[in-house]
Design goal:
The protein is α/β, with parallel strands linked by helices. The chain is built from 22 helices and 13 strands. The strands form three sheets. Strands 3-2-1-4-5-6 form a six-stranded parallel beta sheet, with helices on both faces. Strands 7, 8, 9 and 10 form a four-stranded antiparallel beta sheet that branches. A three-stranded antiparallel beta sheet has the order 11-12-13, covered by helices on one side. Helix 15 packs antiparallel against helix 16. About 50% of the residues are buried.
């Protein structure tokens, strides 16, 4: 029987077609059945038309069905992939704009910090529903592969509270590996260790990354017997671009001794040091790419991408379909995991899984990101050992915020949610407790239609009452209403994007928008 792979959130422009194409480069998966499901019928219809065109253009027997009935899509599935953005761009905007009123300037807002915590509240409510369906109607032991953020929180909720074996997948490690390989190439040429026309690929370096998603640290990097870890700061300072584009990451590298996976913009909002004073933010970011620190940068590129896709869809449909060939297969882990499990071909990658003494100085059951191996015997995750102390301290703070946020999302406990916000590194650096309480109430009220657990506990009605009381008696915390952020760029209209249509189309179809290095 052909595999059945259910994709939840299949209206996603980039991920759905990218992951389907990756799977269909594997000869054994040529007849796979893809079951697409999404809440948005319009988005689902457009992506389905493109997927069917792509399959037909490659002369493959694979099939696609699309439905807004999630249980029907999941029924009898061997694998379930998740790429949702719960609440869509409407909710995402509140994750950025409400914290800005309180001085919290985020670049991405999808992992921790105020935006990431609220994103998790919406996503966990949905993830637990998905897990119920998987337990009840998918194949026994169906594997859940999660691509959605906040990665650690959603994967934690699915494994601990959803009762479904779930692996979280991210491409952050691969991005850092490419950067280190680029730096090593420059150094090796200068030392005469390689020819001027040679290039070191990330696969030439023996890597181990360890930590938590978006805060995973390169703890081993060995190339031809050279230990790159003691050299890492010098390697990055010797690169022509990174001292400008990765100032936060290089500063952390300088002080910790280890390089973190995630981009300058991401990392800057997970720590209490770089975005806490609005006047200092521009010292630490670079505006050549949104991901280097632009205020609300990810919201902007996602909004522009969606608007362009809506307008340009007929042109997409008229294009020649992409060819599903091995050389075009992406580095996204999902297809390789399924290939390893189904065919026995060994695959090594970095995966997000529950900690079971793999990193002893992080709490058990939290979601860690470490190297592992996949073959027909399953997923094999070796013990990596303790993180360096500074790396562990940083990760432990985030883990405890995640733990509170996950439990708050599962129970609808608004007090615990506020305590998670209070302990978040950047939120706590910027805001006092009363500001955090009021901000969280505002965010709960703004997200009401996506937060059924907080409706059920009465927390949202209580938040409305509290906001009204403070407004009436004059005790409401003053906010910077209308503040757009220190480094926010204009979101282009479709007409403006027409001037660089190729860049706009590339942004719209990208699964990894971190690669969109210029302002389209």
């Amino acid at each position: 029987m052909p595999l059945k792979i259910a994709m939840i959130g299949a209206g996603s422009i980039g991920f759905t077609r990218r992951l389907m194409a990756d799977l269909l480069t594997v000869p054994e998966f040529a007849d796979t059945h893809f079951a697409f499901t999404d809440l948005n019928q319009h988005n689902l219809d457009m992506v389905t038309q493109l997927a069917e065109r792509d399959i037909k253009g490659n002369n493959l027997p694979a099939t696609v069905t699309a439905t807004i009935d999630r249980r029907a899509a999941i029924a009898d599935a061997d694998y379930v992939l998740c790429m949702i953005r719960c609440g869509g761009l409407e909710a995402f905007a509140t994750d950025i704009d409400i914290p800005l009123k309180y001085g919290i300037d985020q670049c991405v807002g999808d992992t921790i910090c105020a935006g990431g915590i609220m994103y998790g509240q919406r996503g966990i409510a949905a993830i637990l529903d998905f897990c119920k369906d998987i337990r009840e109607v998918a194949k026994p032991d169906a594997l859940f592969l999660n691509y959605s953020n906040p990665m650690a929180m959603l994967t934690w909720a699915a494994n601990t509270y959803g009762g479904v074996k779930t692996i979280g997948l991210c491409h952050g490690v691969q991005g850092a590996q490419h950067q280190i390989a680029s730096c090593t190439t420059i150094w090796a040429k200068a030392q005469g260790l390689i020819g001027t026309d040679e290039k070191i690929h990330k696969n030439d370096i023996d890597f181990i990354f360890s930590g938590i998603n978006h805060q995973t640290w390169c703890v081993k990097a060995n190339w031809r017997g050279h230990d790159l870890i003691p050299m890492m700061h010098a390697l990055f300072m010797g690169h022509p671009d990174y001292p400008t584009t990765e100032k936060v990451r290089i500063d952390v590298l300088k002080r910790f001794g280890f390089y973190s996976t995630e981009s300058n913009g991401h990392l800057s909002e997970y720590l209490p040091w770089y975005r806490k004073r609005l006047d200092d933010i521009t010292k630490w970011i670079d505006m050549s790419s949104w991901i280097n620190g632009e205020t609300g940068g990810y919201l902007r590129v996602c909004t522009e991408g969606r608007n362009w896709f809506e307008t340009d869809f007929p042109n997409w449909l008229a294009q020649d379909p992409p060819k599903f060939t091995p050389d075009k297969r992406s580095e996204e882990h999902g297809s390789y995991i399924i290939e390893g499990l189904e065919t026995g071909r060994v695959y090594r990658g970095h995966f997000n899984v529950p900690n079971v003494n793999h990193i002893p100085n992080l709490p058990n059951d939290c979601i860690i990101e470490i190297p592992g191996y996949v073959d027909r015997n399953g997923l094999n995750m070796p013990v990596v050992g303790d993180l360096p102390l500074a790396c562990a301290a940083t990760c432990n703070v985030s883990v405890r915020v995640q733990e509170m946020a996950v439990k708050a999302a599962v129970t609808g406990d608004a007090l615990l949610l506020k305590q998670a916000m209070l302990h978040d590194p950047l939120t706590g650096a910027v805001c006092d407790p009363e500001e955090i309480w009021q901000m969280t109430d505002e965010m709960l009220v703004a997200g009401e239609k996506w937060l059924p657990q907080y409706v059920a506990t009465g927390a949202i009605e209580a938040a409305k009452a509290s906001l009204a009381k403070h407004e009436a008696d004059g005790t409401r915390v003053k906010t910077m209403d209308g503040f757009k952020g220190v480094a926010r760029l204009h979101t282009k209209s479709v007409e403006e994007m027409q001037e660089k249509a190729a860049e706009a189309r590339s942004n719209a179809q990208a699964a990894d928008k971190g690669k969109m290095t210029k302002n389209a």
